[in-house]
Amino acid sequence: MVRTFLIRHINTLWLMLVVACAGLLLLYPEAISKNSIADFLANLGASALFIYLLLSLARSLLMIPCTPFVLAGGISFPEIPAVVMVISYAGIVTGAFLVYSFPSFGHYDAYLEGKYPNKLLFLREKLHGRHAFWIVAGWSFFPFVPTDLICYVAGVVKMSFRKMASAVVIGEIPLVTLYVYVGIEIGDLLRT
Q: Distance between CA 147 and CA 163 in Å, rounded?
């Protein structure tokens, strides 16, 4: 019941969280000073990166887009962008694996079938063709379409997981790179 509520209202909840954080930052601007952020991460120590890894992997269980996590990684770990990228790809591939291999877990299949019926029909037809790899890569490149949808359809049409995961990673390379470096820039602005 709670999971269903979260899946249905995740965008609203996410927006509420962002608005609440923005409000708190307006009231307490010193909370995001360079020193406070550095102190917070220093208190976490080596476990900060491990916690980030766990959050990146777990976000796919609730079908939360990876964008906020990639940005947060760039903000939090500006000195190791390559590690943030690798962790981001691990989270993306984990999410792809879950939707591809276990579509009924968390009712992803019913959610996707109900929300995107026309796109599902279109993608099923296209993924039977010889350009399926590039369709998956191209779909993964666009930031405003759900990557989970293409992974689900790839599983339905029995595209090999390796081929699908490779296409998703190739498609996500420009986006993840951009998000990490935008996160680093945002972090620099927050720390000044």
A: 15
